[in-house]
Amino acid sequence: MKVAFEYADVNVDAGRINNERKSASEDWLKLFCKRYNLSVQNPEQCSVARTAGFNEVQVTRFYNNLKSCCLEKKFSAHRKFNMDETVISTIPQ
């Protein structure tokens, strides 16, 4: 709600924010999330393998591979997709 306040402070009328608490109202936040199809989610656990793989060397390697692949195959911008993995669990239950 504090991040929403920063946005609302600049872009919304003063009646929808609480300057005293430096926070947007709950109603404003709910309507904002509904309008832009957003949801507030709690963080989930991350597997050890995934954590270990997310380092500067691996990230640099990924982007170098992505760049060479895109240059080689000449993919246009509309052919590149960001896949959401919210329904895939890597943590054993």
What does this structure look like?
- The chain is mainly alpha-helical and about 90 residues long.
- The protein folds into two domains: about 35 residues, no CATH class; about 30 residues.
- About 45% of the residues lie in helices and about 5% in strands.
- The chain has four helices and two strands; from the N terminus they run H-E-E-H-H-H.
- It has a two-stranded antiparallel sheet with strand order 1-2.
- A hairpin with a 4-residue loop joins strand 1 and strand 2.
- The longest helix has 18 residues.
- The mean pLDDT is about 75.
Quickly list its features.
single chain; 93 residues; mainly alpha; two-stranded antiparallel sheet; 4 helices; 2 strands; 47% helix; HTH CENPB-type domain-containing protein
Cα shape: extended
Quick check: average pLDDT?
A: 77
How would you classify the helix and strand content by structural class?
mainly alpha
Number of strands: 2
Count of discrete structural domains? 2
Uncertain runs with pLDDT below 50, 5 residues or more? none
Q: Main β-sheet: number of strands, strand sense, barrel status?
A: 2 strands, antiparallel
Q: What percentage of residues falls in helices of 4 or more residues?
A: 40-55%
| C-alpha Rg (nearest Å) | 20 Å
Strand content: under 5%
Side by side, the strands of the main sheet go 1-2
H and E string = HEEHHH
The first-to-last residue Cα distance is 32 Å
Q: Please give the count of helices.
A: 4
The oligomerization state is single chain
Protein name: HTH CENPB-type domain-containing protein
Organism: Araneus ventricosus (Orbweaver spider)
